[in-house]
Amino acid sequence: MLKRRISLATAAAGAALVMAAVAGCGTNAQPIQLKLAASEVLAQAAQKTADVTSYTVDAVVRVTHPQEGTGEVQGRMLYQGKPQLAVDLTLDTAQMGGRSLPGGARALLLGDTAYVKVEALKDLLGASKPWIKVPLTEADKSGEVQQYLSQIQQFDLAGTTKLVTASQDVKAVGTESVNGEDATHYSGTFPVDAAVQQLPTDEREQARTHLAELKDVKFDIWVAGDGLPRKLAMNGSKDGGTLDATLLFKGFNEPVSIQAPAADQVGELPRNTTG
After folding, report:
1. Secondary structure (3-state) at 155
2. Is residue 258 part of a domain?
3. The domain containing residue 152 runs over which residues?
4. Bridge partners, 236 (sequence order)
């Protein structure tokens, strides 16, 4: 199954640019987390997010890189884990170092098939239809397509929450409203090496590579009374590169509809990109 991860290195390098986000649902009751230690709240949140079957993410990510310059990505993603993996990712803004992606981009993932709609990519590959269909078995052979598919791998809600459980200094700093819901605000830092160890063994190497551009990461997370995060902000820096991401989560476990584009709008990945 395709892994989904927030790629900080990709964002900092500007090759694909990262986006991430979150905003959500819940009650307005007094958050029960006030009765628990901050580290316990994060541990419980990580467990709860692992069971979330669908959610929506809104995100803004800003990066600087000593060679590439500054960049920004804004967009949203709709995620469904069951009955089959399905993702609908839209990038409204994607720019880095003065270069931008005219018209943005959209990518769909349905099971083992991805659909990519990027005007610039269409011209580059010589595709005749708005959408390009890419079996995941072929995606690794096309660097251009993989660049956009990698965006889908950057929204793992459960994995992101696991990273912050590595914090040794997290503390509650108050109760605030996030999109009209009461949520407890926690703040802290996590060392990248320790954070990666929170992930399953088969995901650590990829995450370590993605996080290599940063040192200690400062984070703020807002957790509602149901134990699920409503907002996550992260920022870090290393050797002149910086990351500043804000994520808003909503729609936990709500029914979603993610469908393939109409057949007459879809073309195959041109052969000369997979050979």
Report:
1. coil
2. no
3. 8-252
4. 217, 243
